Structure formats: structure tokens, C-alpha cells
Amino acid sequence: MRSSRLKRFGLFSLLLMVAVLGSSCTYYKRVMARMNLVDGAQAYNERKFDEAMEKFNLAVSYDPEGTTLESKTAQLFLARTLHSLFAGNRRNTKNAEMAIEEYKKALPGFVREAAESKAALDAKPGDEKLQNNYEKNKAIAGSIVSAIGSLYENLQQEDKWADWQIKAANNAELPNEVRANSYVALASKQYTCAEEITENSEVKKTVTEGSEQVFKFTKPADEAQFSKLKKCVEEGTSYIDKAIELNGNSDSAWSYKTSLLLQGMRIAEMEGKSDEKVALKKASDEAKAKFEELAKIKQAKEEADAKKKAEEVGGAAKKKASEKDGAASQENK
């Protein structure tokens, strides 16, 4: 009987020891990852990029799966370090390629963070702390998607750029606002395609009507160019409508919606469809009004945020000065 109890006690002790050691190991890894992350951030700020990469790689090595905030952040900063190296020397395209791969490794972790913080906010709507946490994670995920797209553009890999934006736009795990931004980016390319054709001097001509000079648009002599114009406007409109469906409060989406409707007006004029031109003009004016409304709201928010930040910085400086005065007063005593 005693032997059986001792065995059970021994097994319990062993399990307890494994649990404690496992917990300690996890804690140790997080502490070491955090130390290397802090050291790497300092090296990065001092533009010691080789040292920064070494530290960030070490931080990531303690949790390659990116399950902790420390490793996710280190992975992101590793990508940003490579991005900075490429920005400093555009001829070294290897750094850009490596940055893209590291960004792609970092993205899933912050997508999970955004989803979890959104779920927490949905369970407790109106909570300012949860709202700020969600906005922060959403912004990081968006910045990663944008950075990858920017690097593909810098490398002049247009096909990969388009594939990446389409993949991001269709990724239901990403926040809607991030997906909408990818649709806007795709729409912007199609708008540029259309504008390059309609701004051509053979297509866009200045004529006098009464006492005023106005623009008149005629079909390109090359039928293939006209077909291309129509296709660009059609695809661009499709992308921008999807962007607005995902995020109706995007001022940039409504801006491109306005511009693409104007391109549609030009096509209608080329085809002699006056009624369609009038309808598109009305739709364009409505889209422009929506854009201006959202732009004002955005500006007001940015100004309010800047004011709040300035007040916080001022308050912190005041507190520090007060503490300093208090310490000096104690010394004099």
C-alpha cells in the first residue's frame, strides 16, 4: 500500500516537474526573444542593419512558428530591415526579394492578431482599449500587404504585383479594409491605363463653344486602343465597386470611383451616347460628393488624433518636469 502511494507520489512529482520546466522553458524563450528584439530595435534605429538582422533572427529562432508577440514582431522587423537595406541600395534586389519572403512569413501572425482582437471587440463593442488594439493590428496587417506590393513594383514585377493584390483582395481572413485597399490598388492601375489613352492629344482636343473652350473626346484611330480603353474602365469599375462593398468609408475608393465614371463619360461621348454621358456625369458628381464628405471626416479625425497626441506628449513632459523638480526639492532638504 505504501509502495503504491509512493509510486503515485513519484509520478505526480515527475509530472509537476515537467510542467514547471516546460513553463520555465517557454518563459525563458520569451524573455530571450524579447531581449534580442529590443537589442535589434536599437540597432535598427541606429541604422546598424547587419546587427539588427542578427538580433531579429535570434528572436525569431526562439519561436519559429510565430505564436508569441515577440517572435511575430521580430519577424516583421527583420522584413523591414531588409526593406531598408534595399531602399538604401536599389541595385541589390536580393534584399527586396528576401524582404518580401520575410513579410509573407510575418503576415499570418498579425492576421490572427487582427481576427482575435476583432472578436474581442465584437464581444464588447465600444471598449476603447479593444478598439485601439484592433486598429493597431489591422494597420500592421495592411502595412505588410502594402509593403509587399510596393517591393514588387520597385522590382518592376508587374505580374507578381497584380497576383499579390488579387490574392490579398480575395483573402477573406484579412480585415475588409485591407482587402478593399488591394482592390483600390488594382483599380488605380486600370484608371491609369484608361487615362493614358484618353489624355492623348489625338483623342482629347480643345474646341471653342460660344465664348468658352472645352474638351472634346473622339475615338482613337486604332480600334484596338479603343477596345483596350473600354476594358480598362470596365475592369477598374469592377474592382472599385468591390472595394466600396468591403469598405464604403474609403475616401480613396470613392475618389477612383469618381475618376472611372469620368472615363466612362468620355467613352460615351466617343460613341455618341449623350443620354448615357449625362447619367454618368450625375453618378460621377454623386461619387465626388461622397469622396469630399469622407475626406473631411478623415481630416477632422487626423487633426483630433494629432491634438490628442500633442496633449499626451505635453502632459508627459509636464509630469517629468514636476518629478524632476520634486527630486531636486528633496535633495535641497
List its traits.
mainly alpha, 82% helix, elongated, 2 strands, 333 residues
Characterise this structure.
The structure is a single chain. This protein has 333 residues and is mainly α. Helices cover 82% and strands 4% of the residues. The protein has ten helices and two strands. It has helices at residues 2-45, 49-61, 69-88, 93-123, 128-154, 158-169, 176-198, 223-246, 251-270, 274-332, and strands at residues 204-209, 212-217. A two-stranded antiparallel sheet has the order 1-2. α5 (128-154) runs antiparallel to α6 (158-169) and α9 (251-270) runs antiparallel to α10 (274-332).
Summarize the structure.
The chain has 333 residues and is mainly alpha-helical.
Helix content: over 70%
What's the end-to-end separation, in Å? 71 Å
Net shape = elongated
The run of helices and strands is HHHHHHHEEHHH
Low-confidence stretches: 11-23
Report the average pLDDT across residues: 89
Lateral strand order in the biggest sheet: 1-2
Q: How many strand units?
A: 2
Q: Count every helix, treating DSSP H or I runs of 4 or more residues as helices.
A: 10
Structural class: mainly alpha
What is the CA-atom radius of gyration, in angstroms?
28 Å
Q: Major sheet: size, sense and barrel closure?
A: 2 strands, antiparallel
* Range of strand content: under 5%
List the helices and strands and how they pair.
Blueprint: H1 2-45, H2 49-61, H3 69-88, H4 93-123, H5 128-154, H6 158-169, H7 176-198, E1 204-209, E2 212-217, H8 223-246, H9 251-270, H10 274-332
